[in-house]
Design a protein that fits this description.
The complex is a heterodimer of chains A (about 625) and B (about 300). In chain A, strands 10, 11, 12, 13, 14, 15 and 16 form a seven-stranded mixed sheet that branches. In chain A, strand 7 (about 230-240) and strand 8 (about 240-245) form a beta hairpin. The longest helix of chain A is centred in the N-terminal third of the chain and has 20 residues, at about 5-25. Chain A is of the alpha+beta class and about 625 residues long. Chain A has helices at about 5-25, 30-35, 60-70, 125-140, 155-165, 210-215, 265-275, 295-300, 315-320, 330, 360-375, 375-385, 415-425, 455-470, 485-495, 510-515, 535-545, 550-565, 605-610, and strands at about 40-45, 75, 85, 100-105, 180-185, 185-190, 230-240, 240-245, 285-290, 310, 335-350, 390, 445-455, 475-480, 500-505, 570-580, 585, 600. With about 300 residues, chain B is an all-alpha fold. In chain B, about 75% of the residues lie in helices and about 0% in strands. The longest helix of chain B is centred in the middle third of the chain and has 36 residues, at about 85-120. Chain B is globular. Chain B starts with a helix and ends in a 7-residue tail after the last helix. Classes of the chains: A alpha+beta (about 625), B mainly alpha (about 300). Chains A and B meet through helix 1, helix 8 and helix 15 of A and helix 2, helix 3, helix 5, helix 7 and helix 8 of B.
């Protein structure tokens, strides 16, 4: 090597090293800014889209909206099963006229956060703001993904929507018969049909009241200007990278309601100990980082960069919770964890109008039931779900009204390849040409098309498991990976035989899950196109009833019909582990909320002592 | 030279037309239906149809194509279908983080690659040369994803030299704190193929008669290498850099996703997943224009590097 070149090389290497070291010692101004303040840092599993409550449907944007905006009602933080309580209204309304009318009375003296759109005046929350938000859900120009919450439900609202489609403009000033505002604080909603689950939608940020003047002032980009009455306001937003919430200085304050705390639950008792008597919120600032990849999200928590990690990635679950117990290294650091079986279900759906896998004759039902029996759900949970998820027993997951812990799907859904083969043999699905795969009773080939999303590793693994499981019982199954949007299109259009799916609770009632098999919802939410008059009758009867043992019995009967006709193969109830540092106080994961930041506190001394130098 | 540049600019028009047609037909034939993604999880056909109307995807193809052409020439691609953010803002705000990573990667990577390639070419055939070739071949056979996972775990988590992820809106903080690990990673990963390529360029030059003549005239080895060999090898190197230059603006989506950098690469992946056609259109067209301009600049740069090159 020529000696004259060595200095140049040395200089280059030195410069690189210097740059690297500079990076390692540089101080993040955000961290410096947080000194002395109660700052919580956490990650989201996916990127947000924006913060216009009526325009977003992704979980993470909605979670942020839930901290900035306040819907009329809320679920109590501690009560399990969940319990509706008032938030900005004086009380939870009672159903009137047999579940057709609901009257909300807003608490006076609740104000929106300050914003230039209010031109220096304090802006009080009034009933008209709620009516305005509900109208926004049906304004076609908003393309609201949650329009279905009020669609075909509120008298006159669909007509206003149809008029707007024709004219190109939604008339917000036109009166709507089902949305009456008799005085400043009262909203009276009249429904087209009785609905005893209607109140649940008023716990969702999608129905949270918004100020019309704010929406009009920022009409060009309402996603970036959330102004609500909630405990936090949006302080900084680096799109798809960082969301900073700061305490809303104008927030009226709240305290923890301990009425529903379980005296036998150590988590409840810790929450009560941490928060009792404190004025909420306690956090000054919350920094949220959307990180799609599992490793950096996991390492950021392990590294101490984040204080809370919700939904620990399944890939790392064996490191965090070996044999179901917290890893020793984490326990030494004082890390705590909570397990949650989320109110959601994964399943595979058969297209019931398909000539091969659909239909209601004994032979057609037998094929579906054999496929369900032949699918190795144990392997799905052990390998693909990393032993974390719980086998689903009915379409209704834990944590929602109508879920029955004792209910078992029984032999209809349990893995039993021998019984699957016997069933297929009995109904004439046999291998006639000796190629190792069965033919249909009429001798035509039996080939099952399985549509799945190409989006993730687990989707591909599930497809492989289906293929292997079916090969074991002599059925040829061909997986077909498609883009997410194509999957949506084909499912809506019924262009599939068998497809993977999942559903998370919008509100905690079994009806939210059982509606997925309601005949008239074919093409909307009933993607399997299941149409069984007995099922539909039970569904309609349950819909007109308040929560009761009788209604639960109807739900049970509907689940039994689903298991008998097998339009679905039940997968799992998703289960998550949530980890948090010892200085995070008041944490209890709520099944219906992704975040409940109002109820969190930080032990500053412990945080500073535990922070990495 | 002016005539050459004008002629090249004129030739860009049919190329751009081809890009527009290709993007348009690919989206309409292969891309998913954005209305279904936007309609949410419970959507009736009327709602989906209404969204299609609002997006304009229910218009005849020729009308949609005309709108696309108009957007290209007015530089106004409207708003993102999924986030309602102005497409121009999407590009302007995401390009900064991408360039913060990619410009240092390009500059440091190319400099080091040239430097090491000169040295390795000079000691060709020796144990050092062979060791470097084996090391680079091995390095190239490992996936970029593996490097990211290992480096992030080792330097971010285990050794704690760098933060695992993060980004702020302050350029210097980003450059000093969050960018070094992805930059070092990309430089090291990019070094192996570049070093091998540039070494071959230098070897070719080192075997030329003019090198022997220069040495015979008594020029120092440093002068031979840096003044004569390097200058002549720069033309293929420039070509190579020119090829990779447009990639600066798209960035490495793997780096951006793993280090949570809000760059253009991550945005493009998200846009494709959401069938967000305005963003896809804008990025593709701007990138095509930029590629054509870079090619022109590289061709002009040939002349500056080597006066024997003539514009025809």
């Amino acid at each position: 090597m020529p000696s004259s070149l060595l200095p140049t090389l040395r200089t280059a290497c030195f410069a690189l090293l210097l740059a690297a070291l500079a990076g390692s010692v540089a101080v993040d101004p955000a961290q410096a800014q947080g000194a002395g303040q109660k700052v919580l840092r956490m990650a989201f599993r996916s990127v947000e889209t924006g913060f216009d409550p009526q325009r977003v449907d992704d979980l993470y944007s909605s979670a942020v909206n839930g901290e900035i905006f306040e819907p009329l009602l809320q679920f109590d933080y501690l009560a399990r099963p969940v319990k509706l309580t008032p938030l900005v209204v004086e009380r939870v309304p009672e159903p009137e006229e047999g579940g057709r009318v609901y009257t909300f009375r807003l608490k006076p003296g609740i104000y929106f956060a300050e914003d230039p759109a209010f031109k220096g005046r304090r802006r009080e929350l009034v009933a008209a703001d709620v009516a305005y938000a509900l109208k926004r859900l049906r304004d076609p120009s908003n393309r609201s993904p949650y329009a279905w919450l009020v669609e075909k439900r509120i008298v006159g609202l669909d007509e206003a929507h149809d008029q707007a489609v024709k004219s190109g403009r939604f008339d917000y000033d036109a009166p709507i018969a089902g949305l009456a505002v008799p005085d400043r604080y009262t909203l009276r909603i009249r429904l087209t049909v009785p609905d005893f689950n209607f109140l649940y939608i008023f716990t969702m940020p999608q129905t949270a009241p918004v100020a019309r003047e704010v929406m009009e002032a920022y009409a060009a980009d309402t996603m970036a200007h959330p102004v609500g009455t909630g405990p936090f306001r949006l302080a900084q937003w680096v799109r798809r990278s960082k969301i900073v919430l700061a305490r809303n200085p104008g927030y009226r304050g709240d305290t923890l309601d301990t009425a529903f705390a379980d005296p036998d639950d150590p988590v409840d008792q810790a929450v009560v100990r941490d928060l009792a008597g404190k004025r909420l919120p306690q956090l000054d600032r919350v920094e949220i980082y959307p990180i799609e990849e599992e490793q950096p999200r996991f390492l950021a928590f392990m590294n101490g960069e984040h204080d809370l990690m919700q939904e620990t990635p399944a890939t790392f679950i064996s490191q965090v919770l070996p044999e179901g117990r917290l890893a020793l290294t984490l326990a030494k650091e004082g890390v705590r964890f909570q397990r949650e079986v989320a109110p959601s279900v994964t399943y595979d759906l058969f297209q019931m109008e398909n000539p091969v896998v659909g239909g209601y004759t004994p032979t057609q039902v037998a094929l579906r039931r054999a496929m369900v029996l032949g699918h190795d759900r144990g392997a799905e949970i052990a390998i693909i779900r990393r032993g974390v998820d719980v086998p689903a027993q009915s379409p209704t997951p834990p944590g929602v009204v109508g879920y029955e812990k004792e209910f078992r799907s029984g032999p209809e859904q349990d893995y039993d390849p021998a019984r699957a083969k016997a069933l297929l043999d009995m109904y004439g699905f046999v291998d006639r040409d000796g190629d190792g795969f069965r033919e249909r009773p009429d001798g035509s080939p039996l080939v099952i098309d399985y549509m799945h999303s190409t989006g993730g590793q687990s989707a591909r693994a599930l497809a492989e498991l289906w293929e292997k499981s079916m090969r074991r019982i002599g059925i040829r199954l061909v997986p077909r990976g498609v883009q997410f949007s194509d999957q949506l299109r084909d499912r809506k259009a019924g262009k599939f035989m068998l497809a993977s799916a999942a559903w998370a609770a919008d509100y905690p009632d079994a009806q939210n899950f059982l509606q997925l098999l309601y005949g008239p919802f074919t093409g909307d939410s009933n993607d399997s196109r299941f149409q069984l008059p007995d099922y539909d009758r039970l569904y309609e009867k349950a819909l007109a009833m308040p929560d009761s043992l009788e209604r639960t019995a109807l739900y049970r009967e509907m689940s039994r019909l689903m298991l008998a006709y097998a339009p679905w193969r039940l997968g799992t109830y998703r289960s998550y582990a949530h980890l948090y540092r010892p200085w995070v106080l008041g944490y209890k994961k709520h099944p219906m909320y992704h975040t409940s930041l109002k109820y969190l506190d930080i032990d500053l001394a412990a945080q500073q002592a535990g922070a990495k130098p | 030279m002016a005539a050459f540049i004008l002629r090249r600019l004129w030739q860009m028009i049919p190329t751009l037309a081809g890009v527009i047609l290709l993007v348009f037909f690919l989206f309409n034939w292969v891309g998913g239906d954005p209305a279904l993604v936007l309609a949410g999880k419970v959507a009736d056909p009327a709602t989906v149809e209404n969204i299609r109307r609002q997006l304009g995807v229910d218009q005849p193809y020729w009308v949609q194509l005309l709108i696309f052409v108009k957007q290209v020439f007015t530089f106004d691609f409207g708003r993102s279908w999924s986030t309602n953010e102005e497409v121009s803002n999407v590009i302007l705000t995401r390009i900064g983080p991408t360039l913060t990573i990619m410009v240092p990667v390009m500059v440091i990577g190319s400099t080091l690659a040239v430097l090491f390639a000169v040295l390795v070419a000079y000691v060709r055939g020796t144990l050092t040369d062979r060791a470097v070739m084996i090391a680079t071949t091995t390095a190239m056979s490992v996936s970029f994803l593996v490097y990211i996972i290992v480096f992030q775990w080792l330097f971010g988590f285990r050794l704690g030299f760098f933060p695992v992820q993060g980004w702020t809106d302050d350029f210097w903080t980003n450059l000093a704190r969050y960018a070094p690990l992805p930059i070092i990673l990309a430089v090291l990963v990019g070094l192996a193929p570049e070093l091998r390529l540039y070494r071959s360029f230098f070897l070719e030059e080192l075997n030329q008669d003019y090198v022997r003549t220069a040495r015979a005239k008594g020029l120092s080895e440093q002068r031979v290498l840096l003044r004569h060999v390097l200058r002549n090898a720069l033309i293929p190197i420039l070509t190579n850099i020119g090829i990779y230059l447009p990639g600066l603006f798209v960035g490495s989506f793997l780096l951006e996703v793993f280090f949570a950098i809000p760059g253009l690469g991550r945005e493009i992946i998200g846009a494709v997943n959401r069938s967000d056609f305005p963003v896809i259109k804008a990025v593709t067209v701007y990138l095509a224009i930029f590629t054509m301009i870079v090619n022109l600049v590289v061709d002009v740069a040939y002349r500056l590097v080597d006066p024997r090159v003539k514009f025809k």
